[in-house]
Amino acid sequence: MDQRSLPYRAARAVWRKFKWLRLQAQLLRDHLYDLRRFGAWSHGTDADKTQAQALHAIYKSYHGVEKGLSLSEPRPGFGVDKIAFLMGKLRDYRTKFDPNGVPAATSALQSYQAFNAGHAIKNPTLETFLDKAEDDRTGGTKPVTRDDILAITGKTGADFFWSRHSVRQYADTPVAMEMIHAAVDMARKTPSVCNRQGARVHVFADAQKALSWQPGNTGFGHLASRALIVTADLQAFSGTGERNQPFVDGGMFAMSLLYALHAQGLGACPLAWSMRADKDRDMRAALDIPDSEVVIMMISVGNLPDTLAVAKSHRMELEHYMVEHD
Ligand SMILES: Cc1cc2nc3c(=O)[nH]c(=O)nc-3n(C[C@H](O)[C@H](O)[C@H](O)COP(=O)(O)O)c2cc1C
Which tens digit of pLDDT belongs to each residue from 225-246? Predict the structure, then answer.
């Protein structure tokens, strides 16, 4: 058919419209899939159904106390309402889930109490609440010096960052699970919103079990020894404003994990999980990833061979990344 003819151009326009509508329908379906899960699992402010929701809400709440105490000039008696709210949350948690929960929150309250006592401010309800509570010193603040920090940071230069590559060749030996544990242990130090720690890692001793679901590891995934799936637990997040926060916190955790694997001398490659709802649902069912978690990415891991090629992955200039403002 003549490409300039009216019927041809009309047919093309209809086809383009159809493709656009189909994309909108897919987008809507995938968004509804995300929407349902965020609605079902994120925590509220007062009626948390699951233990994980309640625990994350308590972390959010008690961290506000630590933050207040870590300012250069904390305000004596700050946050009275928030302290009452936290005590209520802790009472509920102890009744519903764990009579000994949550020591770090109790410890933060003890620090708050001690700080206020130093300013002759009393909170009898809190005093009663803390009566007989053990102090395990896991909450509150701790002193650090500039020298302490510089002694550590002085050992790590730019080389550490520039020597990490996405590694797609692995030695024919299994990665010791202790090294994976050590890497995840380091990644725990990743910052998270209100210290809520929503990130999770599913570790697959049999890498193929997980990697067979991910299309981007063709040609090298079969060489990997272990596979990791980084997720974020929606139960750690709350409110529509945090609808994207799982991806921020989970993504930051994934980056720390990549650096931690690198620090262990392992080779690792981040692997995208940019999937439509149906594929995501199938993978979760097969690999036992809870409905409450969103998948951030997979990571293939292996021991480094003696020599290997890595993609240069050219970085654009500093100016591309950095926009300076007055
Ligand atoms: C979220 C994410 C998903 C990625 N997915 C894949 C993938 O599916 N397959 C792959 O070979 N590399 C994947 N990569 C690796 C990138 O290609 C690589 O990070 C980039 O080229 C920079 O190279 P470098 O990691 O060596 O610095 C992914 C990276 C990220 C951050």
Answer: 999 999 999 999 999 999 999 9
